[in-house]
Specification:
Layout (H helix, E strand, L loop, with lengths): L5 E8 L2 E8 L3 E6 L5 E9 L2 E6 L5 H6 L8 E2 L5 E3 L2 E4 L2 E4 L8 E3 L9 E8 L2 E9 L4 H6 L4 E10 L2 E10 L5 E3 L2 E2 L2 E3 L12 E3 L2 E7 L5 E7 L10 E2 L6 E7 L5 E7 L6 E7 L4 E5 L6 E7 L5 H6 L7 E3 L4 E10 L1
Antiparallel strand pairs: 1-2, 2-3, 3-4, 4-5, 6-16, 7-10, 8-9, 11-12, 12-13, 13-14, 14-28, 15-27, 17-26, 18-21, 18-23, 19-20, 19-22, 22-25, 23-24, 24-28, 25-26
Length: 331
C-alpha cells in the first residue's frame, strides 16, 4: 500500500496523554497509557463513513472512574473474579484487597496503573506503539501479588487491522502463576444507524462454565444450547449474558467472534490466538454494546486448580515469558 501513510501522534486529552496510532483516512486507535494502557477507541473508515468498533467512554474522566466499563481494559494477574480475593499456590495462601462487603475481587491489579511508553514507530509496514509496566515499580501490586513481572503491550495498526500483542515475563526467582485477559467493549451498531437489536452475534464456543450466585464457576461445564449457542449466530436482542464460554473452536489457529449488522452490511471481527481458551461474553445493561473477552483461563481459575479441576492457570518459571495476540477489524 504505497500510498498509505501511517503515523503515531500524542496529545493531551482531558489531562491525559493520548497516543493516536493512525492510518490516514483509514483507521485510528486511541490509547491512554496512564489509565491502564487502555485502547479506549478504535475507528475504521469505509470511504467517508467512520465506524466505531470499540465502545469509547464519553470522556477520560469517566474512564478513570469506571476503568472496566469502556474501551479495552487489561486484566492481570488473573482475569475476572477470585472468590473472597483469596488463593493458594505452592502451599502458600495469598490475599488480594477487596471491599469487605464483596464476595470476590475482580479483574486484577492493573486497571488504572500507568504504563511507560517504550517506543513508537511508523513506516510503510504500519504504525506501532509499545508500552510496558514493571511490577517492582508498584509496591501495592507487589504486596498483593509478590511475583515480580514485566508486562509489555504492543499495538500495531496495519491495513486497518489493529493487533494487540502481550508479552509477560517472570522477572522473579520462583514460579509465577498467572492468567491474562482483556475486556473490550464493542458498539453493536458500530456507530451507524444500524438496527442493533437485530445484529447477529457469533461466538465459536461449544461449552460454558456453570456459575454460582456470585458469578464464580462451580467447576462444572455445560454444553451450549438455546440462546447460549452462539456458534451459528444469535440476534443481539435475545442476549442477556455474563457467561464464561469454553471449548473454543479455532480455525487456522485463531477463534473469531463477530458482530454482523445485516441492514447496513457492516460488521466487526475479533480474532484471538490459541493462548485464549476461554471467551467471556457480557452484555452491559445500559447500552447497545457487547464484550468479547478472550481469557487464558476462566474466572477463579487458581482456586479451581486447587480443587483438582484443570483450568488453564499458566505457571511461568523464572525468566520465562508468556505471549499472545488479539486482532480487531472491520468485516
Amino acid at each position: 500500500m504505497a500510498n498509505t501513510t501511517y503515523s503515531v501522534a500524542a496529545k493531551t486529552v482531558d489531562g491525559f496523554q493520548v497516543y493516536y496510532v493512525q492510518q490516514d483516512g483509514k483507521a485510528v486507535a486511541e490509547i491512554v497509557p496512564a489509565l491502564g494502557n487502555n485502547c479506549y477507541a478504535f475507528r475504521v473508515a469505509d470511504g467517508d463513513t467512520w465506524l466505531n468498533l470499540i465502545d469509547a467512554p464519553p470522556d477520560l474522566a469517566t474512564l478513570e472512574e469506571r476503568p472496566t466499563a469502556y474501551g479495552n481494559p487489561i486484566l492481570f494477574p488473573f482475569p475476572n473474579r477470585i472468590r473472597n480475593g483469596t488463593w493458594q499456590f505452592e502451599e502458600k495462601t495469598y490475599q488480594f484487597d477487596k471491599p469487605p462487603e464483596s464476595p470476590t475481587t475482580i479483574h486484577g491489579l492493573l486497571l488504572n496503573q500507568p504504563y511507560q511508553v517504550e517506543s513508537h514507530t511508523a513506516d510503510e509496514n504500519g504504525a506501532t506503539l509499545v508500552c510496558s509496566l514493571n511490577s517492582q515499580d508498584f509496591p501495592e501490586i507487589a504486596r498483593q501479588y509478590p511475583f515480580p513481572f514485566k508486562i509489555e503491550i504492543t499495538y500495531t495498526l496495519k491495513d486497518a487491522v489493529l493487533t494487540m500483542e502481550v508479552s509477560i515475563k517472570n522477572t522473579g526467582n520462583r514460579n509465577m502463576p498467572m492468567g491474562f485477559g482483556i475486556h473490550p467493549y464493542f458498539s453493536v451498531d458500530l456507530g451507524t444507524e444500524a438496527d442493533a437489536p437485530q445484529a447477529v452475534i457469533t461466538v465459536p464456543a461449544a461449552k460454558y462454565w456453570e456459575l454460582d450466585a456470585v458469578l464464580v464457576p462451580t467447576g462444572k461445564q455445560r454444553d451450549v444450547s438455546g440462546t447460549l449457542d452462539l456458534r451459528s449466530g444469535q440476534p443481539f436482542a435475545k442476549l442477556k449474558l455474563d457467561h464464561v464460554f469454553t471449548d473454543v473452536q479455532l480455525v487456522d489457529g485463531v477463534s473469531r467472534c463477530r458482530i454482523e449488522n445485516k441492514d447496513t452490511g457492516y460488521g466487526m471481527v475479533m480474532e484471538s490466538d490459541a493462548q485464549f481458551r476461554e471467551l467471556v461474553v457480557y452484555t452491559p445493561p445500559d447500552r447497545d454494546a457487547i464484550c468479547f473477552e478472550p481469557y487464558t483461563c476462566p474466572t477463579d481459575a487458581i482456586n479451581l486448580e486447587a480443587r483438582g479441576i484443570p483450568a488453564g492457570v499458566i505457571v511461568l518459571a523464572p525468566n520465562e515469558t508468556f505471549s499472545g495476540s488479539v486482532r480487531f477489524m472491520l468485516q
